[in-house]
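Example with several molecule types.
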Amino acid sequence: MSGFQDVRDVMELSGPTDATARVPIAKKQKTVERRPDGITRELFALLGENPPPVAIVESKFKEKPRWMGKVNPWVWKPFENPARSDGLVLRHWERKSEPSQDLEYQFGKFNVKVDVPAYTDGEYEVLKDPDWTREETDYLFNLCREYDLRFVIIWDRYEFPAGKSRSVEDIKARYYSICRNLMELRTPLNQMTPEETQIFNLLNFDKERETARKNMAEVLFARTPEQVKEEEMLLVELGRITKNQAKNLEERKELFNRLEVPTSQGSIAAYTGSQGLAHLREMMVNSNDKNKKRKSIALGSNNSNNTDGPQQSFAVATSAERLGPGGGGGGPSQKDTPQPKKQVRKLTPEEELEFGVTYHDKLTSGVKFRSAMVTATVKGGTAQKVQAALAQLDISPRLAMPTTRTVQKFEQLQTSVGVLLDARKANDKIDNEQRVLKAQIEAAKEDT
Amino acid sequence: MSGLQPVLPSNQAPSTFEYGGDEISAIVLDPGTAWIRAGFAGEDTPKSVIPSDYGILEEAGENGGKKYFIGDNDVHSIRPGMEVKNPMSDGIVADWEAATTLWREAITPRLTAALSEHPLLMTEPSWNPPKNREKTIEIAFEDYDVPAFYLAKAGVCAGFASGKSTGLVIDVGASNISVTPIHDGLVLRKGCVRSPLGGEFLSNQIRAYFESANIPLSAHYQVLSKTAVEVGKPAEATYRTFAPGEEPTESYKRFQEERVLTEFKECTAQVWVGPGPLPGNNNPPLEAAHAILSPGGRTFEFPDGYNLVFNSERFRITEGIFHPPSMLTAPNPDPHTTPGLNQLIANAMKDIDVELRQMILNNIVITGAGSLLYGFTDRVNAEIAAAFPAPRVRVMAAGNSVERRYASWLGGSILASLGAFHQLWVSKKEYEEHGPNIVEKRCK
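Resulting structure tokens for the full complex:
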């Protein structure tokens, strides 16, 4: 604190006096003094000015709940259901404070019925169907009323004495055709309101279509596990294809965008001035350059697809070879010059020799020395003997100038040496055997 | 929605429209072959559950009439000459006099003495004939004098208990396994099928197995004290002796043995996982199946202390439910004409409109105490999934054993406590006007 005062003195500031400065200190100490119960003074002193790290909860009883009001009484009250005609009185518990409740039973409004049309005898004359008797039609309409048009249930409970068996579709078709005809009979089609026309159209029940749909549903239901599995697989496949299709389309579109000459869609207002014209010219030159480049790239890619492509590259390779390993620099320049498109021409053996064109069965990728491509024609133990024989003849195992022809000759040489060595070996063996046999004969002669 | 609303203080009632309930303290009675369940509508468990089996002594009551012994306490006590009978046959009432007494006894001591003040909702199996239904409503109005009555299908109620108004209810009861397709709270009659392969059948299978393996079956009442013995060793117990003429009847003995068999079903019997029948069932050596089935057997101790480890037999006794040809020797039902549970489900589905099948297979509800057999629901699930590969199959079975056993009662309790249901009650006035025939018209 004194440091603070010193600074003030130095800067000649008339700040708060010592007395006023001390007031907050006193306050602070007061707050420190207030320490909650259940924590020792020493421990509290260690905490300093920070709030205690754990919440200290005083143990006391739970507060008495404060009820919002007084208890509301309930009464065991009789009630009548307006949905019933017999006046049955049931009882339930009700709040005493709700007097309006007994006017109308609140669940009475759930008593709803489906509106099933009724027809008169005269009207039935129009609704006749050779397949249905009047009695059966009446029976059907009663069931419709009883089961609220749940046709599956109606079909399930349908037991008309001496009637034929009806399918759900038969029942539905009969019901809807009667409804439709009755509606038309009562209000001619041209006098119907739009709502009525809508309902009239909805009543059109297509029995054939429904039957076909049911049959298909049946087939779908009776699928075997294999079919289910196959279907799942096909669906996955379809998903994959459609996903890829979108990707392919995207790629193709991008390609088309690249190939197409960009057409200007903006207004030409920007190019009316002389400056604008200069800018336009620059742009066109640039775009022309780009186009040229694109064309050349496109041509190059076309060429590579042609049959003379590989020949050309071979020619490059052979020319490089003719120039020797050091003269390879000539290659790229040749490649850069655009090759005029020409007819594919078969080369005669002489020409092949002249141009240095060779064909290979198999070429592995990458650069390598031809000397490394010398195939070892002899194998096994003979190979070493051949090497030794060649060393005797002062021929290095690695050719100094491995051209196609020298390599070929070298291979021939190796083979011949190998054959010769094999022949000598065989000769020696036979000589040995001869000698042994001769010695045996000698011994046999001596014995006899 | 409910999460957004503030919590109601405890002195305010929730709006009845939130759950559509309006409790009129109706009584729900769900009589079964093994147990009769009764309680107030709107509660979640029946308050009173008594066995359907009752004891009867001829010429012991007042004025030399019959005397009934009803309820767990009475029917299990040893009385010389007391016959134990059951009023039900094939899931429906055969002995009306006894049934009337039993049902009243299920309600009056624990629920209310004033039957005339409470509407009564009863459940019935889907194959209950019209004559029986008329007799039931007659008893309700004439004998019990209820103000209103309704007869609900047990299958529909079991569906309601699982929150389904459309679905397939597989109820494994004591006398039958029934498969009931329901749609919009109505039974599809053409698809209702049943097979006598319930709990009683299983008991007979266990009895047949015990007989074939020479395993002595004892009942708790026969044993006074017992000492622990090694597995497979003969029992060392002191048995109760009866003076000549004081012995309990044969039906009492059988009833008491049934309790031991129930215990056996609960803790030892198991259902093979499936799908398909238990392997090696028709050829005597079960070794192949043995290896697959279970590494360790389960021990069961009989009341007299005799105990055994059961291995593959545990599966063999239950296999008849799914695959009747592999049932153990039992005089009836006929193994070749009785449809197993798989066949039942297939038969039920055959007579249902194809548009409903998908929805029904998606809401399969398994109830009944018999379905608490270990591995039962898994097997049903596997069998249905194998039989119907194309549609999505979802099998629901309450994990809570109370809910599973009392599902049809619970559904009835829900139904009778709904505000919109109260217009469906058949009132006493209507009954007096139309006669018992009204039940056919009103309780569909």
